[in-house]
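stage 2 :: seqdesign
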């Protein structure tokens, strides 16, 4: 089974990450399908496109756009699958909807770790629009922007992922606005729920 232009993927575990294991208890943290934050973004590649070759292979673990697995309600209140649904928990996935595969950024995406806010007058726990590059890509590395660098990114360009129990922001390379001299005293911010 192959699609002509799309990958076929399935969720790594389930479509939604609605439960959190705390000790020997399971806590349900979400009971609705509307909130995009609880949609699973981890998938496994089942089939690659027939029309072109890619570095992404069958069996690779990928991080994808949240609307891929999302369900929604139509005007009559009926629950529906996303437009990417194929069959039997399989989904079509365009190459541009894959942000990371096997720990490598895809296309022009990168991942930035938020840092703790040093402003004592602010109630925000993390410094807005500033972070440390965690996963880079070839276009950023050509500009000498590598993992570990402190960067500023444009407002509202980031979207949240939890990768290896770390909260990271995914964005495109051109959303990195500038680099800073790394002072070394910046603390990464990772909330306990991540």
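stage 2 :: out
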């Amino acid at each position: 089974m192959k699609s002509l232009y799309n990958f076929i993927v399935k969720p790594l575990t389930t479509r939604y990450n609605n439960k959190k294991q705390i000790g020997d208890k399971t806590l349900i943290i979400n009971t609705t399908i509307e909130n995009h934050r609880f949609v699973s973004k981890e998938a496994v590649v089942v089939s690659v496109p027939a029309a072109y070759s890619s570095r992404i292979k069958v069996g690779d673990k990928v991080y994808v756009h949240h609307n891929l697995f999302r369900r929604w309600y139509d005007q009559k209140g009926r629950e529906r699958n996303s437009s990417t649904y194929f069959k039997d928990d399989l989904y079509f996935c365009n190459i541009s909807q894959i942000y990371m595969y096997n720990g490598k950024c895809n296309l022009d995406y990168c991942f930035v770790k938020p840092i703790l806010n040093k402003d004592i007058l602010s109630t925000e726990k993390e410094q807005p629009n500033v972070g440390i590059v965690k996963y880079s890509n070839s276009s950023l590395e050509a500009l000498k922007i590598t993992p570990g660098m402190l960067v500023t990114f444009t407002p509202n360009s980031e979207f949240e992922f939890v990768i290896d129990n770390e909260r990271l922001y995914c964005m495109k390379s051109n959303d990195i606005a500038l680099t800073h001299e790394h002072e070394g005293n910046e603390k990464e911010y990772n909330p306990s729920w991540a």
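stage 3 :: structure notes
- The chain has a mean pLDDT of 91.
- The first strand starts at residue 7 and ends at 11.
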